[in-house]
Write a structure and sequence with these properties.
Layout lengths: L4 E3 L2 E3 L5 E6 L8 E7 L7 E6 L6 E3 L7 E6 L4 E6 L8 E9 L13 E2 L3 E5 L2
Length: 125
């Protein structure tokens, strides 16, 4: 599958915001359900948010509901994670990932087989 590369991580104060981007490539991007994960890549990752192929349906972990928004622009082959009201507990390495699907995203990280290298988010006062 196509390579995924994250960007946008950094250091932010509590209550601040960051926007993470995931740049894909190739026509496979539009066939991928997408997810943002934290902590580790692969089967032991923690799911933060997921989105279907077209961006019409979304899933959020309870810890980020109302604060984070996942979106995608298939014309640009980019997925985003808008992170608002950041708190100390949000500090981690964030990964974007995808899997081929005819429909909605899987919520189990083991189903994702295309992972980016990660970008670090640090919330610090």
């Amino acid at each position: 599958q196509g390579r995924l590369v994250e960007s946008g991580g950094g250091v932010v104060q509590p209550g601040g915001s960051l926007t993470l981007s995931c740049q894909g490539s190739g026509d496979s991007f539009n066939r991928l359900a997408g997810g943002w994960f934290r902590h580790t890549p692969g089967p032991t990752a923690f799911l933060v948010a997921a989105i279907d192929r077209t961006g019409e349906t979304e899933y959020y972990d309870d810890f980020v509901k109302g604060r984070f928004t996942i979106s995608r622009d298939n014309t640009k082959k980019i997925a985003y994670l808008q992170m608002n009201k950041l708190d100390f507990g949000d500090s981690d390495v964030y990964y974007c990932a995808g899997h081929i699907t005819p429909g909605g995203p899987r919520l189990t990280p083991s189903f994702y087989d295309d992972w980016g290298p990660g970008t670090r988010v640090t919330v610090s006062s």
